[in-house]
Design goal:
The protein is an alpha+beta fold. The chain has 17 helices and 21 strands. The strands form five sheets. A seven-stranded mixed β-sheet has the order 8-9-10-1-11-19-12. It has a six-stranded mixed β-sheet with strand order 14-18-13-17-15-16, sandwiched between helices.
Length: 534
């Protein structure tokens, strides 16, 4: 019996409580209506949104920490913690003024010194932050509510950098926490966001809990993505980890959970038949599947080995493994940018089109010097998107004659291991799978995965001067036409050097009980404005 048949057969047979997965205490109607049980895409195994870039960490962090600016649904930066900003006529000095009365969860006021320390830690890890840091004169607190960022040359996209939704975001932490080495994880989780993280109830692998912060001061504007008034209508949010999709589906249908972030497509028809469940596309901007190779170690330190993968891989195989047989949910992607958006390009994408060439790929692989060494493929089993891609890759590598060391693990372990630059046999890795939200891949500004700046690049650490040249050209572009030219050249350069292997474009679902309202579409789950009736 295949996976899809098994899942469909199991759904609805048992409940989460019956499996022992969730203790369901008797709650009064009022308390029940103010408590939301949410199944995230994966376990919150670590919780430092600057050290790591996993979406599950970013999503939780958006509850606990706030940012100076937030991106809205029109992709424009809006003030959040900031009351005002000024930029000098020459574009070299930015001055930011904090809103009055902001507090951290420990009762301490949010001060300019906290912002300075937080931005300094962020700028050591984020691609846009690194660009700003490279042209920085100084970043200082002028007084308790005023921050000044002085630059050696203008950086017109400053507000986008401070507002963007992709990881790492510019989350503001108390100075004592923000002074943690950006390459080491924090151990204290105090923010000024709308919810407090209840560390005492955090059970990695099982549950994370957030409680409403009574002193949070939401903006008065209507909420829109990470911008506007983050009005919390819930008192408590429980993230319940349920790796098995059939169990999660049964729990949602039985009312044991309220919202499932990313149900697999195989189970959506069954969920749609339940009169108490709503199902919809989570984000029309979709996602881009990612097959990431380590550029530091053989065989993938040789571009021929990486190009062999592009030559042989079938994006259709990957997409059908992720979303099933509904062709409306996926598209082939001979490039890196989100389809049907202004900067989408297929320039240089011929290697991903047409009939797959296994024999040609084998030849390239041999030319790269590969001679049968084990190649480690670390695959998170608790994340359906990564598991599906990993299974397809394992089969592909075997057909190419690669000796596959398939490491079945969890998403938290992948997040820690992929940060290791050591050789694969000494705790490192050769490849892993993930995905980028389409909202993160609209342009090169905040697209972490496209960069080729070596040690400062994303996991895999590609070093591609050709890619960096075109990124710079995009930043320097004076018109949309110039931007399109730069991105076309960037797309080709990234494919030529194989920054990573795109496995295709796909849409994902989200599902919730019909007694829950206020769920908005977007690249992450937004809990503000969400309410529940008992």
């Amino acid at each position: 019996m295949d996976r899809r048949t098994l899942l469909k057969g199991l759904t609805g047979v048992g409940s989460l409580a019956a499996t022992g997965g969730l203790s369901m205490p008797a709650l009064s109607q009022g308390i029940e209506a103010r408590t939301l049980r949410f199944v995230p895409q994966a376990d919150l195994a670590n919780f430092d949104p600057i050290w790591g870039t996993q979406y599950v960490v970013r999503n939780a962090a958006a509850l606990v920490w706030d940012t100076l600016y937030g991106i809205d649904a029109t992709l424009k930066p809006q003030r959040q913690m900031a009351e005002a900003e000024e930029v000098s006529d020459d574009g070299l000095v930015w001055t930011f003024r904090l809103r009055p009365g902001l507090k951290f969860h420990d009762g301490e006021p949010v001060l300019a010194k906290d912002v300075v320390a937080s931005l300094a830690r962020w700028s050591a890890r984020d691609p846009m932050g690194l660009m700003i840091k490279a042209i920085q004169n100084d970043l200082v607190a002028v007084d308790d509510r005023t921050v000044k960022w002085s630059l050696k040359q203008p950086y017109p996209k400053m507000l986008l950098a401070l507002a963007k939704n992709n990881s790492p975001c510019t989350f503001i932490m108390p100075e004592r926490i923000a002074k943690t080495d950006p390459f080491k994880q924090i151990t204290e989780y105090v923010g000024s966001g709308p919810m407090k993280f209840v560390k005492s109830e955090w059970v990695p692998g099982a549950r994370s809990v957030f409680e409403k912060f009574a002193d949070y001061m939401p903006r008065q504007e209507k909420s829109s993505w990470l911008a506007g008034g983050k009005q919390m209508l819930l008192d408590r949010i429980e993230w319940v980890v349920i790796p098995d999709p059939a169990t999660a589906a049964a729990a949602l249908q039985n009312g044991e959970i309220d919202w499932w972030e990313n149900p697999i497509a195989d189970l959506v028809p069954l969920l749609k038949k339940n009169r108490n469940v709503s199902v919809d596309i989570a984000d029309p901007l979709g996602n881009i599947g990612v097959f990431r190779m380590n550029h530091l170690h053989p065989p993938f330190n040789n571009v021929k080995a990486r190009r062999a993968i592009l030559m042989a891989m079938s994006q259709e195989d990957y997409m059908r493994a992720i979303v099933g047989d509904d062709t409306a949910l996926w598209k082939p992607l001979p490039g890196y940018f989100t389809p049907d958006t202004p900067l989408y390009s297929e320039e240089g994408g011929e290697i991903l089109k047409g009939k797959r060439d296994i024999e040609g790929a084998k030849k390239l692989l041999a030319e790269s010097g590969y001679s049968g060494e084990p190649v480690s493929c670390i695959v998170a089993q608790d994340q359906p998107i990564t598991k599906a891609q990993g299974d397809v890759t394992a089969d592909l590598l075997k057909r190419l004659g690669i000796n596959v060391d398939f490491v079945a693990t969890d998403w938290g372990t992948v997040g820690s291991r992929r940060a290791q630059k050591s050789p694969p046999g000494q705790g490192g890795w050769h490849m892993f799978h993930t995905w980028h939200a389409g909202a993160d891949c609209l342009n090169p500004a905040s697209y972490t995965g496209i960069r080729g700046n070596g040690d400062k690049a994303w996991w895999g650490w590609p070093n591609s001067p050709a890619v960096e040249k075109e990124v710079a050209a995009w930043f320097d572009a004076k018109s949309l036409d110039e931007e399109k030219v730069a991105v076309g050249h960037l797309n080709k350069a990234a494919l030529d050097d194989v920054i990573y292997a795109p496995t295709g474009f796909f849409l994902s679902y989200t599902a919730w009980r019909k007694n829950v309202s206020g769920i908005a579409k977007g690249p992450l789950p937004f809990f503000w404005g969400v309410s529940k009736t008992a």
